[in-house]
Design brief:
Length: 394
């Protein structure tokens, strides 16, 4: 690669955003930060701006923009502060940008991520909720614009690494029997079922292998994360839900596998650190140092596998059913889950209510076709409203 590549980091203050900036800072000759965006931790965003000197920063409202703009000027920076979703879409689609890291959490990331796709960028997709919500339309936009979609989710990045370059010909054409999606099983893999009613947000967020944002940590504990990832994999690799098998692998060393018709199974392994898939996607098809230490198999010692228990993890079943139903179902599943996770984090519902609430929302309305983005946002809004009603009358 010759010229310096310009990178927008959507969700720069989050766990993936910070890991991305860590990798970028190791390669100043290759990458330059074009824009950084943040939503809440704006003091941290300011520090990141001082470190990376982006052309733009994006914040949620005018008041915080004024505040940050003043502080950045005082620090001698020329960074211009933009506001809201419009600002996010602008820095995702700007002609000067080569790479967009889509690392906003949840449905809020859909429009800016799509803006990057429509502008034909190299899109590093961490924001799985965006793809889950809008699958068909998202993938059509990728095809139409010629954007390069590079998976950041460690499992999907692993699968991408285990597939041949021409995998878009179709899984059958390239001889894939199935995709094995690994899951750690989260902090409650072995918790007695009767105790799940009483687990706290702190316990749910204490993931055994990965350090992540709070929403995805709760999703990992309920295994909704794996459900969303199953849907994500269906879109990324043009697979049907029954071509994807979830395997619990508690060490999180194998990040996923591809099973070929000749009996070969290819896997990608590494220490559980998101800087590996981030560096892979940033440098692809080259390889660069990510700062992650070499995998020591002697320390790992053993690799275990088990079948997931859908009694324990009903969210897996709900996600599979939504994937099979298609249409508005995945967007409703995602929205209901976002409301449920937030309510659990605020201690308004129990951990086990998360699946109950999602199931009730999904059963409340028939699945509808989604032929345009409006229908996706309608499904999202409807599910949030139904979820709010469920919370109110419970
Ligand atoms: P996080 O909570 O640490 O960070 C989220 C980022 O999004 C922050 O920068 C926050 O300011 C921003 N944000 C939140 N709400 C916003 C809104 N309404 N508008 C604009 N910006 C908003 O989350 P994370 O763990 O970094 O995860 C980010 C995404 O990456 C999620 O979709 C997650 O599923 C995915 N992902 C994360 C990991 C991981 O290891 N953390 C792994 C795989 C995939
Ligand atoms: Mg993952």
């Amino acid at each position: 690669m010759s010229a310096v590549q310009h990178v927008t980091v959507l969700g720069a203050t989050g766990s993936i955003g910070l890991s991305t900036l860590d990798v970028i800072a190791r390669h100043p000759e290759r990458y330059q930060v074009f824009a950084l965006t943040g939503f809440s931790r704006l003091a941290e965003l300011q520090v990141l701006c001082v470190q990376h000197r982006p052309r733009y920063a994006v914040v949620p409202d005018d008041r915080s923009a004024l505040d940050l703009q003043g502080r950045l000027r005082a620090a001698g920076l020329a960074t211009e502060v933009l506001v809201g979703e419009e600002g996010l879409c602008a820095v995702a689609a700007d002609a000067a940008v080569d790479y967009v890291m889509a690392a906003i959490v949840g449905a809020a990331g859909l429009k800016p991520t799509l803006a990057a796709v429509q502008a034909g960028k190299k899109v590093l997709l961490a924001n799985k909720e965006a793809l889950v919500m809008s699958g068909v339309l998202f993938m059509q936009a990728v095809k139409h614009s010629g954007a390069v979609l590079l998976p950041i989710d460690s499992e999907h990045n692993a699968i991408f690494q285990c597939l041949p370059g021409d995998y878009a010909r179709g899984l059958q054409a390239i001889g894939v029997r199935r995709v094995l999606l690994t899951a750690s099983g989260g902090p409650f893999r072995e918790t007695p079922l009767a105790e799940l009613e009483r687990v706290t947000p702190e316990q749910a967020c204490a993931h055994p292998n990965w350090s992540m944002g709070r929403k995805i940590s709760v999703d990992s504990a309920s295994m909704m994360n794996k459900g969303l990832e199953m849907i994500e994999a269906c879109w990324l690799f043009d697979a049907s839900p029954d071509q994807i098998e979830v395997v619990i692998h508690r060490q999180s060393v194998i990040h996923s596998l591809v099973d070929y018709v000749d009996g070969s199974v290819l896997a990608q392994l590494g220490n559980p650190d998101m800087r590996t898939p981030i560096a892979h996607a940033l440098a692809w098809p080259e390889r660069i140092d990510s700062g992650v230490s070499a995998l020591d198999l002697f320390t790992v010692g053993r690799l275990d596998f088990e079948r997931p228990d859908e009694q324990r993890f009903p969210c897996l079943r709900l996600a599979r059913e939504a994937a099979q139903a298609g249409g508005s179902a995945p967007a409703m599943l995602n929205a209901a889950n976002e409301v449920a996770v937030e309510a659990f984090l605020q201690r308004r519902i129990r951990f086990t209510d998360i699946a109950r609430m999602i199931e009730s929302v999904l059963n409340a309305r028939p699945v509808r076709a989604v032929e345009a983005l409006d229908a996706v946002f309608e499904a999202d809004a409807q599910a949030r409203e139904l979820a709010a009603q469920w919370l109110a009358v419970r």
